[in-house]
Amino acid sequence: MFLLPLPRSFSNEITPPEYSDHYLFFEQLQRPYECPEHPANIGLLISTRGTCGYYVNGAKNLIGGTNTFFISRGSGLAIRNTEKDVAPALLFFHSRLPDLVQHSLLYGGEVLLEKPFDNLPFDFSWLERVHSDARLYETVRSLIGLGSSCSSFAALHTDMVIRQLFEDLLVKNQDAYRKSLNVQAVKASTRLEIFRRISTARDWMEAHYNTEITLEDIGAVAAMNSQHFLRMFKQVYSITPHQYIIDLKLRKAKELLETTPLTISEICQNIGFESVFSFSILFKGRFGLPPSALRPSPPSYRREA
Amino acid sequence: MSQQCLPPADFSQFKLRVSVKTPIENAYRAWASPAGLGSWFIGIMEFKGPNGETRTGEDLAQAGDEYTCYSRKDPANIVIKGKVLKANGRDLFSFTFSKECPVTISIYTDHSETIVELIESNLPTDEETMRRHYVGDSKGWIFYLTNLKSVLEGGLDLRNKNADITNVINH
Questions:
Q1: By the 8 A CB rule, do B103 and B4 touch?
Q2: Which residue of A179, A260, B110, B125 is most buried, as measured by CB atoms within 10 A?
Q3: ipTM of the assembly?
Q4: Is there a contact between B79 and A113 if contact means CB atoms under 8 Å apart?
Q5: What is the pLDDT of residues B33-49, one digit of tens each?
Q6: pTM here?
């Protein structure tokens, strides 16, 4: 992987740049930065400080916090950043990596080495949106340190991290594609757009599950009428948004029970449940055990309400 | 000697040797077993046999095993994966490493001491690969071979154990 400062321009061509390695462009900006629209290659865009304006196919995406924008090959990317002290980081994958990973996952490493494959078609556009995934963000951010590290075998480790990252993304993309097939739309482009909006709304639900949110709120995030959103969400995930949020709360509660000393009533408050009683019933229904059974063994964690 | 007479430099492989005051079988175990590698190398090593069976502790890896090396700081993080190419159980151990290139370890006696010889070969010779793999790998191996010697001779484990410290050659 090459670690480079932000260039004046990524490409003047009408086709995406060909990267012969992974490229991570990173800079702590001391000045406003602007990069004209160009066809980008497949990559991940974050901002390690402040909020960066990434314009993808003309749509503005303000990326900050632990959000990551996945950009697909061929999409138009412009960067407009008028603030100082913003630190954008753009990771573009080796141009052959998508095909390499796809091929090796399907056929194994040995076939990968033996058989040439140049133009396997693979559409990553199912992932092209903002992802609220702290682990994904942290992995990309960690590459900034690894890329400039003098640690023994740092280059090797960097390549492995990127490879793992891409394998995970590929699996997510395949999963997204499978789920998208549930959307009853004639045109593939319509199905993709509906899936993208539903996915954005789902990410938003993940980030706001512990607040009071209504179907109208989520529908607005997806830029859809609430009833239409409800139908589409159910088609994609086979459950309603309400059921999805309850499940999110229960999964989060399980995590808190297993990893923190919070009491059950504190956890209820934390995840936005008003009644400990109904929480306990739902929890047992979901995981087959009462919440108290999932406390870690150290006695210090057992201070029930 | 004029410059024209120099043989072309070979960047497709490099050889490193280290002398270690230890029996050959100890040096072999240090390369071919999870416990041995765990005592001096980059991470936590796992070998899996052809039927998915995991080699543990002092079990010796066999030719055809797949290996995965996990980061000591973050065991969910894989540092490198590869395959054991040769393992004769005595003095020869070979495995794939960066760019799937083979690394061959030969262990023999020289002047009453054990020599561990490492050859990384078949490296592509384009400029980029040379910079990252010929230079990067040889630097990495020099530290780890030094640590191998230190650990096997009963000295210090030179690896960095402080998780807050990064960007140091001892990892």
A1: no
A2: A179
A3: 0.85
A4: no
A5: 999 999 999 999 999 99
A6: 0.80
